[in-house]
């Protein structure tokens, strides 16, 4: 994978970085850690600049996030309520008013999720969907996404440039970070699933 990413960036420069990061936001399995740290390293061997790479990556992040945001906006509260009214969801303990409660909660507390979620693996992509469902204003969404993405992109690009040819060591470190983050999220999900079972299904 590394070889074709390098060749693609060598051939198309900043456009390639923006495109790869946009795709990474829509398809999380595409590793941003590799793209960004490798691009950072390439600023020491090519005409690419650190600032240019960060800007290109942040533009790509925003484009990818907007795609998922637009998809999320198609899931209105009314549509979600109709979905939760189906028998299967009722058996799983859902109520139709859960949709409005979830949207109200996100509108009240979701700004931090959009901002800080951009620095958490998996969540950094998926957070755009509930933001769209909650009808978060486009300007606010773009601002928070840009800031959060710029922080994440700057960290990886600068580290890649700093360590040079050892950029792959940064990837290993962030892969471990991703693994830990996923394990923590899985534990949290299991905990809330158990609470949900006790409160909604078992009763």
UniProtKB/TrEMBL annotation:
Pfam families xref list: VTT_dom
InterPro entries xrefs: DedA_domain (IPR051311), VTT_dom (IPR032816)
Annotated TM spans: 12-30, 50-72, 141-164, 170-194
Keyword presence, NADP: no
Keywords: Cell membrane, Membrane, Transmembrane, Transmembrane helix
Lineage top rank: taxon: Bacteria
Residue stretches making up the VTT domain: 30-161
Subcellular location: Cell membrane
Protein topology in the membrane: Multi-pass membrane protein
Family membership: Belongs to the DedA family.
Protein name (Swiss-Prot/TrEMBL): DedA family protein
Organism in which the protein naturally occurs: Limosilactobacillus balticus
Record lineage: Bacteria, Bacillati, Bacillota, Bacilli, Lactobacillales
């Amino acid at each position: 994978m590394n070889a074709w990413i390098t060749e693609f960036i060598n051939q198309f420069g900043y456009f390639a970085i923006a495109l790869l990061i946009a795709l990474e936001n829509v398809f999380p399995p595409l590793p941003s850690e590799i793209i960004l740290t490798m691009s950072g390293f390439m600023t020491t061997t090519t005409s690419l600049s650190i600032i240019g790479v960060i800007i290109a990556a942040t533009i790509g992040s925003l484009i990818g996030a907007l795609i998922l945001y637009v998809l999320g906006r198609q899931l209105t509260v009314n549509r979600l309520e109709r979905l939760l009214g189906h028998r299967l969801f009722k058996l799983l303990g859902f109520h139709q008013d859960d949709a409005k409660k979830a949207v109200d909660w996100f509108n009240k507390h979701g700004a931090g999720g959009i901002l800080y979620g951009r620095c958490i693996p998996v969540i950094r992509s998926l957070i755009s969907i509930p933001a769209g469902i909650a009808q978060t204003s486009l300007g606010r969404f773009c601002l928070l996404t840009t800031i959060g993405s710029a922080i994440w992109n700057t960290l990886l690009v600068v580290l890649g440039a700093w360590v040079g040819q050892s950029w792959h060591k940064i990837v290993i470190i962030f892969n471990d970070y991703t693994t830990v983050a996923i394990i923590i999220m899985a534990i949290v999900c299991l905990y809330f699933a158990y609470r949900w079972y006790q409160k909604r299904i078992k009763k």
